[in-house]
Amino acid sequence: MDDIGTSTYLQWLRNEFEESPFWKHMGITFDRFEPGDVIIKMPVKKELGNSNGVMHGGALTSILDSIIGATIRSTREVRVATISLTTQFIAPVKEGTLYARATLINDGKRIQYVESKAFNERDETIGTALGTFAILK
């Protein structure tokens, strides 16, 4: 794909993610969006808290899953589906903004392995995930 085609696709993809009902509900937006180099962010808000007063593990898992899909799709025009996601909860978060970044492990045609990391404004790791994703045409 040429630079114009890539630029048009990335603009469309950015809009597709940021306008999705789930991303809007969670408050997820892009902080950086380049092919294969994507960072998303999500505010730590009261509505995402659990009974312990910290962000619910499901909210953390959501940003770790979301960054993987966005990163894969930033590198090629495909749809993806999560097959499995193993999440490690490392530190609680009560306030601020959560960021996430993913690293593609392989260039699979049908299956993609990816690692993701969520971190706070001080670059402290809050959680990580190892994902297996199906590549859909």
TrEMBL record:
It holds the Pfam family 4HBT. Keywords: Hydrolase. The keyword Oxidoreductase does not apply. CDD domains: PaaI_thioesterase. GO terms for molecular function: 1,4-dihydroxy-2-naphthoyl-CoA thioesterase activity. SUPFAM superfamilies: Thioesterase/thiol ester dehydrase-isomerase. Residues 52-125 form the Thioesterase domain. GO terms for cellular component: cytosol. PANTHER family: 1,4-DIHYDROXY-2-NAPHTHOYL-COA THIOESTERASE 1, BLR7284 PROTEIN. This is Uncharacterized protein (TIGR00369 family). The lineage of its organism: Bacteria, Bacillati, Bacillota, Bacilli, Bacillales.
